[in-house]
Amino acid sequence: MDADNVVTLKTVQKAADTLSGHVIMTPVQTDETLDLLSGRRLYLKCENFQKSGSFKFRGAYNAVSRLVNSNGSTANRLELVAGSTGNFACGLAMAAELHGVTAHMVMPDNSPECKRQMALSHGASLTLCEPAAQEIARTVNQVRDATGAIFISGAERPDVIAGHGTMGLELLRQVPDMDAVVMPVGTGGMLTGVSVAIKSICPEIRVYGAEPEVSNCAAMSLEKGERYAFPRFPQSVADGLNGNIGKLPWTYMQSNVDDIFTVSEDEIKNAMRLVWERMQMVIEPSGAVGVAAVLSDSFKARAGGCKNVAVILSGGNVDIDILSKIL
Amino acid sequence: MNTNAEVTLQTIEEAARTLAGHAIRTPVETCETLDLLAGRKLFFKCENFQKSGAFKFRGAFNAVSRLVRSNEPTQRELHVVGDSSGNYACGLALAARLCGVSAHVVMPNNAPECKKQIVLSYGATLIQRERRQDFPQTIKQVQEMTGAVYISGSQNPDVISGQGTMGLELLQQVPDLDAVIMPVGGGGMLAGVSMAIKSICPDVRVYGAEPEVANQATLSLQNGERFVYSYVPRSIADGVVAGIGPVTWTYIRDNVDDIFTVTEDEIKNAMRLVSERMKLVVEPSGVVGVAAALSDSFRARAVGFKNVAVILSGGNVDLQKLPELLLM
């Protein structure tokens, strides 16, 4: 296996070459109302428009592509397994299908129906388990033992993280005079990849993570100076962010991330509603967490000097049928 | 500069200049899943991203802007009044605000709540009436009190020219266009866009799409004369239940190749597809064109069509109602 052990600007640039023509270079949109409410110019990167409905496709595609290339003639016998709260399962299932490779997904039993359906629609097999980190790990191991599948970590694998980092390269080209970029944090793959890309090229640009208050392991880890993990998954409406910050992401966080902002459940729902109603775009609760952060008082207090702020709308996979329950 | 008496390529190009920097030149998006379902490449013009949430802003801004320019010598305080099931009210309210003019809009009681809120948020006066039959009387009352100029949301030539600018943009944005499909209610969009497209590329087919239960345009084309139901049909596509007007009829009769009708379920299915696959917030009226593009009757007609543009006309929908709107 030919995976790099670290995440660098070079590995992100290589990922960009691999992804070129396969992932969507998603648009950056602006909205006058959101600018007014936040007190600055916001540039929203629409990863809800990405293949499989979230940015996770980037990392998944990069990882599968590199794996297939390094396996040459035996690639079509490859089997992959991953644990995911949802979007990585969708991205990996789609990337695997595009490469003709078998995928097995392990998801918590409280994951959104649309995410399970999407993984299945791309030909992946699905095993559900209790929503706890050790349960997911245990079930992944079971599948691995039964099938010989290769484990693809959505949080720890460097080529997944490098794939996500390509958003940073795109933002540097798409957003004029960017002061800061804000993005949701779950396991920290996006935050790591994007921060490496941006800080390597323009270290003066601020990189901020955004988390639900009830699922604030990244914020707590930064505060404590050591990685903190919830033993049982929190239950934020931002279902994609209920996982813990990964080990590899943690090693980059202290040096590359300027701050983590936490937001309440109501702030997340309000931000989601704003994007749906004012920008006419479907985003999922996790996808709204960055918007919630830039609208928050703490952002205005701690990052108020930033004038042109990019915000990543990480995904749009949400069960519309239960929208009234979510909002 | 007076109100134009008719709609021509010139008046539409003039409208494009008036709208430049004010209306959004909306993007055209594509979706592989929908291409697969349709059996051809579809190009979606995202007027749900337009100011005030629907294409209606284009016509409203063109009309109000020209009115202001023709009023300049007199310096009289201007009021405008319009009647609308929703989106034209939103467009007129915003256009009036941007042009420094007072707006009065007459809407039915059962118009979507979000559209009423948008109208109020732009500072327009909102008058609600139970029955559409009462609209003309109400408009007269407003005119008597304020001297307001009535601007029809679909029959005013400046409004139609404004809508036609979408046709100009589509010809620029979509290479090798074979056909364009759009929803039709009063016919302002269909009249303007068909005039723009047929004037420049007469080979491009122009189609309207409407609910089966509100198929006035279809019956009009079939009969060779304008037909309107004596009642207001009820469809989930609340923005297109009105019949074609007398002005738009002449342009539609001469420029439109056909009208396709779709069932309520087809509209709901299209809503679900666009929301779930394209992550776009659209209203039922907004996807009537999509429903048509996916229909059997269109497939039968579109043999050989490779590139078809579909206008997503608007995205003003009550989020609480969204789940029930998707239920089939």
Average of per-residue pLDDT values of chain B? 95
Number of strands of chain B: 10
Largest sheet of chain B: 6 strands, mixed
Specify the helix fraction band of chain B.
40-55%
Helix content of chain A: 40-55%
List low-confidence stretches of chain A.
none
β-strand amount of chain A: 15-25%
Q: Main β-sheet of chain A: number of strands, strand sense, barrel status?
A: 6 strands, mixed
How many strand units of chain A?
10
Q: What overall form of chain B do the CA principal axes indicate?
A: globular
* Shape field of chain A: globular
Q: Estimate the mean pLDDT confidence of chain A.
A: 94
User: Which regions of chain B have little confidence, pLDDT < 50, spanning 5+ residues?
Assistant: none
Largest interface (C-beta under 8 Å): A-B, 21 and 22 residues
Rg of chain A, Cα atoms, Å: 18 Å
Give me the side-by-side strand order of the main sheet of chain B: 1-2-10-7-8-9
Number of helices of chain B: 14
Protein topology:
The complex is a heterodimer of chains A (327) and B (328).
Chain A: H1 9-19, E1 28-29, H2 32-38, E2 41-46, H3 56-71, E3 79-83, H4 87-99, E4 102-108, H5 113-121, E5 125-129, H6 133-147, E6 150-151, H7 158-174, E7 180-184, H8 189-201, E8 206-212, H9 217-224, H10 247-256, E9 259-263, H11 265-279, H12 289-295, H13 297-302, E10 308-313, H14 323-326
Parallel strand pairs in A: 2-10, 3-4, 3-6, 4-5, 7-8, 7-10, 8-9
Antiparallel strand pairs in A: 1-2
Chain B: H1 9-19, E1 28-29, H2 32-38, E2 41-46, H3 56-71, E3 79-83, H4 87-99, E4 102-108, H5 113-121, E5 125-129, H6 135-146, E6 149-150, H7 157-173, E7 179-183, H8 188-200, E8 205-211, H9 216-223, H10 246-255, E9 258-262, H11 264-278, H12 288-293, H13 296-301, E10 307-312, H14 322-326
Parallel strand pairs in B: 2-10, 3-4, 3-6, 4-5, 7-8, 7-10, 8-9
Antiparallel strand pairs in B: 1-2
